[in-house]
Task: inverse folding
């Protein structure tokens, strides 16, 4: 009788411990995700080999007319939306530089870092140190900034505003013409046009 | 009138073409055309002088001019884009009472925006380009107007305009990456005709202005 009670007691303890461990394991990734969303990326890879591909829309320029045109690119559906956003920004910056459709990004322009805040602000920190002086006029700067806004707001419904930093600073312009800082999100993309990555 | 860049600030480049030189070349012809039309012109950049952005804003804002025209030649990597086009600064979204915001980003009132837009439309009409908003324009300031595919007015934030307090436009006569633009603007008669049209547009704006 006493032995049966002891077995029952140990059994209950084991069930409780296993349940507790499962709950703890289940909650942990969510907590980690939150931290990533409000801070800069770690050096961890942006996706894993088994992550499924996802198609996103990028803004490029049709070489024949010089006008903006949509092209698609493939990123991976990593668990973190932050990682997906950063992949999308990189896909835009490293998009095609030859062929019929090309991205309006000058040689030498790189992504320093990407941030996403809980208020829905996507912060794109660009480096222009390696870009040649005089290589970007107002029209091209406009295409680049609008391209960044669209790649983020069209593909990620969470993005409410896009902010561009230059070499980590709140700079007046990217390369001398388009005035940054007033409101980079107020492009012609409406909320209705936004579509989440699927 | 301000020919953008100058001195060590070359502006954009395309091959051997340098923006500051083209801005100056067009400015000189425009100045003559305005003066011949009876205007008094305040020239911000004289020759190849280097003028800081703050100094330019100060000189323009204290000039007591009726309007400001900032000349900026442009470039574009496909070579397909051609001038001319105009830029007007969108109206600011924040309250002007937020002085720190105004000092930092400049403040463009709705009235100032509409005056600048009138000037841009008047010049665009005389230059025979579509006096409508380009689809790349900011949603601020469109005020229900639908952008046109060939619209040559860009309602976009421009560093040369954001701190100005009078009706002002950026006028881009040509793209340095367009061989046809370079060819046209290298001809004195074409440049004179272009300048005369800008003067006519500006005159029309001033007659319409309250």
Result:
């Amino acid at each position: 009788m006493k032995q049966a009670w002891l077995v029952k007691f140990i059994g209950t303890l084991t069930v409780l411990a296993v349940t507790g461990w499962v709950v703890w394991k289940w909650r942990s990734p969510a907590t980690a995700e939150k931290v990533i969303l409000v801070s800069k990326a770690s050096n961890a890879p942006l996706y894993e080999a088994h992550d499924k591909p996802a198609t996103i829309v990028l803004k490029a320029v049709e070489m024949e007319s010089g006008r903006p045109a949509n092209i698609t690119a493939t990123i991976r559906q990593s668990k973190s939306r932050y990682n997906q956003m950063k992949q999308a920004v990189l896909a835009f910056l490293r998009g095609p530089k030859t062929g019929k459709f090309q991205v309006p990004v000058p040689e030498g322009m790189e992504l320093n870092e990407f941030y996403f805040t809980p208020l829905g602000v996507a912060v794109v920190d660009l480096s222009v140190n390696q870009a040649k002086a005089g290589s970007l006029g107002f029209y091209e700067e406009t295409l680049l900034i609008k391209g960044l806004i669209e790649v983020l707001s069209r593909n990620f419904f969470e993005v409410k505003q896009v902010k561009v930093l230059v070499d980590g600073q709140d700079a007046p312009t990217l390369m001398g013409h388009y005035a940054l800082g007033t409101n980079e999100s107020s492009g012609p993309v409406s909320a209705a046009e936004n579509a989440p990555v699927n | 009138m301000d020919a953008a860049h100058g001195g060590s600030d070359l502006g954009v480049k395309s091959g051997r073409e340098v923006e500051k030189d083209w801005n100056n070349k067009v400015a000189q012809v425009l100045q003559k055309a305005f003066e011949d039309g009876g205007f008094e012109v305040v020239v911000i950049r004289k020759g190849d002088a280097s003028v800081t952005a703050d100094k330019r804003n100060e000189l323009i804002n204290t000039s007591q001019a009726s309007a400001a025209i900032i000349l900026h030649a442009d470039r574009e990597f496909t070579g397909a884009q051609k001038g001319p086009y105009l830029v007007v600064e969108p109206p600011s979204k924040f309250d002007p009472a937020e002085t720190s915001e105004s000092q930092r980003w400049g403040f463009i009132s709705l009235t100032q925006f509409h005056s600048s837009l009138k000037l841009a439309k008047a010049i665009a009409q005389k230059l025979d380009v579509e006096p409508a908003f380009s689809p790349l324009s900011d949603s601020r300031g469109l005020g229900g107007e639908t952008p046109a595919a060939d619209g040559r007015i860009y309602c976009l934030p421009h560093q040369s305009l954001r701190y100005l307090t009078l009706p002002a436009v950026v006028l881009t006569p040509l793209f340095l990456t367009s061989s046809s633009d370079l060819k046209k603007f290298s001809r004195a008669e074409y440049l004179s005709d272009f300048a005369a049209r800008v003067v006519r547009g500006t005159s029309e704006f001033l007659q319409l202005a309250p």
Q: What stands out?
A: The interface with chain A takes residues 10-13, 18-19, 72, 74-81, 85, 87, 89-90, 92-93, 104-106, 135-140, 147, 154, 156-162, 170, 172, 175 of chain B (CB under 8 Å). The mean pLDDT of chain B is 92. The longest helix of chain B spans residues 188-208.
